[in-house]
Task: inverse folding
């Protein structure tokens, strides 16, 4: 890449000893800036790929098939913007874990209310992940 730089030079011929001339000078490209940009892009994509993988919520989807009668009634959990309910009674996350552990095993029907934050949903999933004997079905109550 050529850049034209204005500089003062003595003329070799002519009545004026000093005059303004335009002389082309080749400047070498510095690879430092290019390497810095590539390194930052590489770092950015590595970090976003790592955070995207850890941010996934594992859900096992139940596919269609022959239905069987459950041995015990399902636990109905309602997650709303103002709290958590298990079979109609207010619960905390610790209370939910204790109540489901006391029941043994079965299926949890998790109904998501309007305005539920993703963080609350992730916390309930974390509690249910600690109870492997319970199967999860997520219901969504839309607007």
Result:
């Amino acid at each position: 890449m050529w850049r034209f730089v204005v500089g003062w030079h003595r003329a070799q011929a002519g009545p004026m000893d000093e005059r303004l001339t335009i002389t082309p000078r080749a400047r070498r490209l510095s690879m430092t800036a290019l390497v810095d940009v590539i390194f930052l892009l590489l770092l950015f994509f590595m970090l976003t790929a790592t955070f995207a993988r850890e941010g996934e919520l594992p859900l096992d989807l139940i596919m269609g098939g022959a239905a069987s009668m459950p041995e015990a009634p399902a636990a109905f959990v309602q997650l709303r913007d103002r709290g958590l309910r298990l079979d109609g009674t207010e619960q905390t996350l610790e209370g939910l874990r204790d109540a489901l552990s006391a029941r043994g095993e079965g299926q949890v029907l998790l109904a998501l209310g309007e305005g539920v934050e993703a963080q609350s949903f992730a916390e309930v999933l974390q509690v249910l992940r600690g109870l492997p004997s319970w199967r999860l079905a997520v219901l969504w109550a839309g607007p």
